[in-house]
Amino acid sequence: MATNRTFTMIKPDATQENHIGGILSMIEAGGFRIVALKKTLLTAERAGEFYAVHKERPFYGDLVKYMSSGPIVAAILEKDNAVADFRTLIGATNPAQAEEGTIRKKYAKSIEANAVHGSDSDENAQIEGNFFFGSEEQF
Ligand code: IDP
User: Which residues are noted in the entry as ATP-binding (predicted)?
Assistant: First the structure.
């Protein structure tokens, strides 16, 4: 059964280039409520842990390096059908294939530096949200 929460990160490139406000505006305009929010820096070790499911993929090393290259903004978001609707709002992994009106179409620079993360399942949304936020930080 679909739950009503998902998890996102504004990745280092978009954070560095002052797109935090623009991206959060698109998220709120898309009908999502911000349940938890923080700007933080992932160490390479923590980034590797977060992306452990991609360990075998050829881009894993670069991804870990990129995700620990500067601050990120982590957030838990709430809306009916949150995981699927948020994947629609962010658009395709590769911005060249992202549709008009999506966050990645507007802000992503490349398939790697693609501005935002969005959980791919309810189970991962919960795991990823809890990776960054204690239950006392989720309202
Ligand atoms: P998603 O973020 O759209 O769910 P995933 O396939 O789960 O895409 O990949 C996780 C992240 O790894 C992507 O958001 C992107 O930053 C990076 N990535 C995915 N595919 C490639 C690639 O082919 N080259 C470099 N980085 C990639």
Answer: 11, 59, 87, 93, 104, 114
| Domain span at 87 | 5-137
In this structure, what CATH number is given to the domain that contains residue 82? 3.30.70.141
Distance of alpha carbon 36 from alpha carbon 23, whole angstroms: 15
Query: Of the residues 73, 113, 117, 125, which is catalytic?
Result: 117
Q: Encode pLDDT of 110-123 as tens digits.
A: 999 999 999 999 99
Kind of pairing between the strands at 116-118 and 72-78: unpaired
Ligand-binding site membership of 114 (annotated): yes
User: Does the structure's ipTM exceed the value 0.95?
Assistant: yes
Per the structure, the count of domains in the chain is 1
